[in-house]
Amino acid sequence: MAHLSIDGVHTFYGPSHVLHGVTLAVDKGRIATLLGRNGMGKTTLMRTIMGLAPAAEGAIEFDGRHIEQLPPYDIFDLGMGYVPQGRRMFPHLTVQENLRMGLRNKRQRKPDVFESLFDYFPILRERLKQKAGTLSGGEQQQLAIARALAGEVRMMLLDEPTEGIQPSIVDEILELLVRINRNQELTILLVEQNMELALSVAEDFFVMEKGLIVESGKVSEMDKDAVIHKYLVV
User: Within 13 Å of residue 98, how many CA atoms lie on the same side as its CB?
Assistant: First the structure.
């Protein structure tokens, strides 16, 4: 069953027509990756799903419910998490205060609410009182993912989660995503410039070219060389 279904979505930034009828479906509990060169519309698609860049046309369904007309906070309340490119921390707030920003409602604000997160991100327990702006890039990315998970989301969108992070930490973060996916059946849609990294964790793939999905399928059946040559070589 499709957890996220997108049908014929068009998005504009002012007069610029960025998405030209995007159609794709991500099945529940799967990790899918969205590939493509810079400027092809990947980030715009993520923002459109989250209601940050309104769809001018087309349908977006999450768990069978239409969300294309909903504001971002309602989409988040339905269980959709988003880790944008560049992490977007509140640098002058502590780790704990940043995590609290990810809570969806007052019922969740109990003392042990973050304990399950620390099983995945033990470094954050040690850094709870530290200002987020003083963390390393890798620690900030872990905080961004943890903040999105704090709302007990069922699906997560990640835009370039390994950007600007040292290679040793990149592997750690990707392994973490796979663990969370398996343990919690969390559906993940991942935008990643490094195709090899993305395909090492993803089960399904979509390729974007000029605001359209031009290739898709299972990673295990993908003709990687053909896709790279046709769509990903600059």
Answer: 31
The helix/strand/coil state of 211 is coil
β-pair partners for 133: none
C-alpha–C-alpha distance, residues 71 and 85, integer Å: 20
* Helix (DSSP H) and strand (DSSP E) numbers for the chain: 9, 10
Q: pLDDT tens digits for 165-199?
A: 888 888 888 999 999 999 999 999 999 888 888 99
164 in helix, strand or coil? coil
Percent of the chain with pLDDT over 90: 70
Q: What are the distances in angstroms from CA 124 to CA 97, 106, 218?
A: 12, 22, 34
Q: Is 215 exposed, middle or buried (0-12, 13-18, 19+ CB in 10 A)?
A: middle
Length of the chain: 234
Helix (H) or strand (E) holding 81: strand 80-83
Cα end-to-end span (Å), the chain: 35
Query: Residue 111's pLDDT is what?
Result: 53
pTM exceeding 0.70: yes
CATH code of residue 186: 3.40.50.300
Domain encompassing residue 210:
2-232
Domain count, the chain: 1
For residue 14, give the nearest of 66, 56, 58 by alpha carbon: 56
